[in-house]
Design a protein that fits this description.
With 86 residues, the protein is of the alpha+beta class. The protein has helices at residues 12-15, 38-45, 49-58, 75-85; strands at residues 21-26, 31-37, 63-65, 71-74. A hairpin with a 5-residue loop joins strand 3 and strand 4. Zinc ion binds at residues 26, 28-29, 33, 62, 74, 76-77. Residues 26, 28-29, 33, 62, 74, 76-77 line the site of zinc ion.
């Protein structure tokens, strides 16, 4: 319904200037979603990067592998995760 192909490109930089965010296709959302680096995701949830990898592996948050072998974290799943924690 909602097309957000270009949404979010400048979104995170307002509050999280230390993170990079990219819009990627998230297979778990089955749509394009804003993704954060593992560092950015860890900062957002206030957890260690280790926990981000663990959550991604457990499927608690959505992760998207890049061709370079790094992991990007779907912001949608982080927002849900954050809501449960706070
Ligand atoms: Zn997702």
């Amino acid at each position: 319904m909602i097309t957000q192909a270009n949404a979010g490109m400048n979104f995170s930089t307002n509050n999280f200037s230390y993170t990079e965010s990219y819009v990627k296709y998230c297979s778990q959302c089955a749509t394009k979603a804003e993704t954060l680096t593992t560092l950015g995701a860890a900062e957002l949830l206030n957890v260690r990067i280790y926990d981000i990898y663990r959550k991604a592996e457990a499927g608690e948050i959505h992760s998207v592998a890049t061709p370079h072998g790094s992991l990007m974290i779907c912001r949608n799943s982080l927002v849900q995760e954050k809501r449960f924690r706070v």
